[in-house]
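ok here's Ciliary neurotrophic factor receptor:
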Amino acid sequence: MFDHEQQVFQTPANQLPPGDLTITCRSNTYPKGFYCTWTQLHRTFIPTNFDVDVQHNQRSLEVQPDPFHKNRCHVRFPEVFSSFLYLVNITAINSLGKASTIYSFEESNIVKPDPPERVVATPVRNNPRRLEVSWNSPSTWPEINSFPLKYFLRYRPLIREQWQHVAAKDTEIGTWSDWSVAVHATTWIGEITSPPDVDPVIPEDSCFGHTDLKVFKVGVTGTRATYSTVFHGLSDWKKVLALSIG
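and the structure:
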């Protein structure tokens, strides 16, 4: 049955010429460069190749194919803060014909960093209503000093579905990253002095319990070189925020 279906599947009547493509471009290594990916809106059932041309300010840019993804290429930015549009023209070619799709974008619209890394939330000693949250900038962001990032932190009690927005700042270039992986933490509950064979007694005002288990995610966006990081006085590779709960 499988062989028969495979034979029918590949008959000339089912083979199609290329059609339109869906193209997206993104820069997660700004200001080094960007990458573009594309998919066919319908299958052709025969081998299809792609010819990629990228233009900026009436000039063709060098296009590097991705070594792992057939439908992806990489391009270096010829300059930064450019007001000229980038034009991406991808032509799909097979034995039955060809079709071209053009995609245009502004530099600032495709900048999207990867999520922050190594997010950690820890209790603050002797303070049952505060947590300290730290994270690293995305390792794919190449020039953190020249192009610093600003961050958006949100949290919620584990039993609630709605996130509480703690800090936000408008972006000047690009869009927010995806959220980091969520981490969980509880606030400080004081020293446990009960013997091992006795259940510990937790004071009612310790703010400990299922409502104090918090979930954290951190987002990040790119800024122009004139911007400083949101949290001043901290190293650029690691941000620390003392978060007040409640």
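+1. Residues 115 and 138 are 6 Å apart (CA to CA).
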